[in-house]
Amino acid sequence: MAERLDVIIFGASGFTGKYTVFEAVSVLADLKWGIAGRNRKKLEAVLEDMGTKANKNLKNIPIVIADIEDQSSLVEMAKRCRVLINCCGPYRFYGEPVVRACLEAGTHHVDVSGEPQYMETMQLKYHKQAQERSIYVVSACGFDSIPADMGIIFIEKNFDGVVNSVETYLQSYTKGGSAGGRGGIHFGTWESAVYGLAHANELRGIRQQLYAEKMPRFEPVLKHRPLIFRSEIVDGVCLPFPGADRSVVMRSQRFIYEQEKKRPIQMHAYVAFGSYVTACLVALVAVVFGLLAKFSFGRRLLLKYPGLFSFGFISHEGPSEAAMERTYFSMTMKALGWPKTDNNTPPTGSPSKSLMVRVSGPNPGYGATCVALLSTAKTILKESDKMPGKGGVLPPGAAFAKTSLISELEKHEHGMKFEILANK
């Protein structure tokens, strides 16, 4: 067998996959990498198109043929590399066979899943086996949920005290006029959300098996904000953020608590809009989406007419490159806690110290996400000695807390910037 590649991008002809190939030209410049999928012609076309876009000849990039329906081909693909980047979702349908292949082949695995049921099921079923095989399996390595999970790691490194709680406020905006063009998110993300919400009741059973013991209660408890409210932190009207950020952060915090006995950080996540009108419209769409996703007939409607139910925001073609390049995100995070004491006594009383940070970047769905995904793979290759234990199924905050992942993310044009806004 030929020498193992450092990285293979599986699902490279998909929407996220092809932009991961584009970002790989710079992020993986010092590594040996290849691409994989089931259709050679489509993979060759991706290399040609993304090579032209990057002004780089990619014809010599290795191509591996693998099919999600053929487990032996997945194992052979995994044997060809040290880290497999899986861009083939929805992960609740297509993720587990790839994880199994990586465990059999002794290959690390990263993906961009924002599906709590999938991520926590993989942890429940394969964490011990991954530890035994010295393999890291890390999901949520994209926009879900690197900004939130690594943002909290960044907060703790800069807090100089004990953090009790963090609230996150996500905003997105466009520069240079309206984003225009096709929908802002690809259909695959919508499909994952439909099935994730439809089966949300699975999570309780998964978590009861995954966590036999409840976490101790730490005071003061971070309370939920109203369903809709105006926040002075971002000067916007806010709703609860429906993504995976909180579940991912809580998994990281629990892992760190169990490994290091460190007080876990409480967290709630919100998304901010410019006006009550916009926020109310989004809330209305969310209610309709939630109701329809509960029934098979409703799911069929949501999947058949994504543009209708998202006011044109979702499309099978995904956003245009022009729209993506004009889209930016900003996640403002406010931490509350207590100053550091001389004798490291446990904190008491109301939190008296705050820290405000911001994680921001361009093209969150298909630029920053792809850079983050590639950067996690690169970090496993170069800094596994700084990662916990010898392997396991982990969220990014738990996996990369002591690595230089944040610095790596800040190096790239479509990466992410971590900055301190206020320290009081």
TrEMBL record:
Stretches assigned to the Saccharopine dehydrogenase NADP binding domain: 7-138
Keywords recorded for this protein, A-Z: Membrane, Transmembrane, Transmembrane helix
Keyword Membrane: yes
SUPFAM superfamilies in the cross-refs: NAD(P)-binding Rossmann-fold domains (SSF51735)
Source species, domain of life: Eukaryota
Transmembrane portions of the chain: 269-293
InterPro entries per UniProt: NAD(P)-bd_dom_sf, Saccharopine_DH-like_oxidrdct, Sacchrp_dh_NADP-bd
Pfam families per the UniProt record, alphabetical: Sacchrp_dh_NADP
Protein's UniProt keywords contain Transmembrane: yes
Name recorded for this polypeptide: Saccharopine dehydrogenase-like oxidoreductase
The species this protein was found in: Musca domestica (House fly)
